[in-house]
Amino acid sequence: MLKRSCLKSVVAASVVSLLVLAQSAHADLMNGEFIDNLSPWTVDPTGAVLWIDADAADDGEALFIPDDQELYPESTLSQIFTLDPESLTLSFDFVMDIIAETDIFTASLLDDQGDALGPFSDEADFFYFLDSKGEEHKAAEVVVTGDTVSLDVSSWAGEEVKLVFNLQHDYTDGEDTYVSLDNVAVSIIPAPGDGNERMPMVRRGDHDGVDILATQKIAEVAIAVTTLV
Questions:
Q1: How far apart are CA 34 and CA 51, in angstroms?
Q2: Any residues with CB less than 8 A from the CB of 92 and at least 6 apart, and which?
Q3: Which ranges of the chain have pLDDT less than 70?
Q4: Coil, strand or helix at 1
Q5: Which residues in 127-205 belong to E strands, given as ranges?
Q6: Which residues contact 65 (CB under 8 A, 6 or more apart)?
């Protein structure tokens, strides 16, 4: 669960996992809720994104952090996977703890050649952009509701993609920015019979505005009640 609090203090108080795993393609997006660790996400560079459990609920979050020694200019978390053929949207929740004035958080979706899918301009390789001054840019396919960002991915359903989250650090002002990420998910078109699809309304035997089937059922109930009395 994401909370708007000083994420810097969470680093020292939380159990941290520094797992960095080799990146390979998966059939579906995996561990978007960061349960127990960051596996199978790839962190670059090592230690630039931490696993934390800020609320001790065993659900976990990914925390993008700056380097105390200012050795790396950005923190990146990524995963390669194949979008389900019935994919509708890709969504995630995030909170930016704004301290520095010039840091930038972006989300990108790349194809198997490393080219951007759905950029908001010809010059950009990301579909969502937010800097620490509050300037926000997003692709036409993106909807932002509160802390949740959703991207329509139906145009690329069935394709192998690389999802990349990035926090760029500018250490010139001596301040830092942190980003907490959670609930990364891909929604799909509901399959028939799963209870989520809309069922058509069928009116049988309708004549002059009277539903004959419904009238028959009412008559049957009335007869049954009279018999019991």
A1: 8
A2: 32, 107, 148, 149, 165, 181, 182, 183, 184, 185
A3: 1-27, 118-123, 173-174, 191-229
A4: coil
A5: 128-131, 136-138, 142-145, 148-152, 160-168, 178-188
A6: 11, 48, 49, 50, 75, 176, 178
Placement of tokens 């909170």 in the chain: 95
The one-letter amino acid code at 51 reads W
List the CATH code of the domain at 7-188. Answer: 2.60.120.260
Phi–psi pair at 57, nearest 5 degrees:
-105, 10
Q: pTM for this structure?
A: 0.74
- How far apart (Å, rounded) are the C-alpha atoms in residues 72 and 53? 24
Q: In what order do the strands lie in the sheet with 178-188?
A: 49-52, 61-64, 178-188, 87-97, 148-152, 142-145
Residue 78: strand, helix, or coil: strand
Rg (CA), the chain: 25
119-155 residue pLDDT tens: 666 667 899 999 988 899 999 899 999 999 999 999 9
User: CA-CA distance, 144 to 125, in Å (whole number)?
Assistant: 19
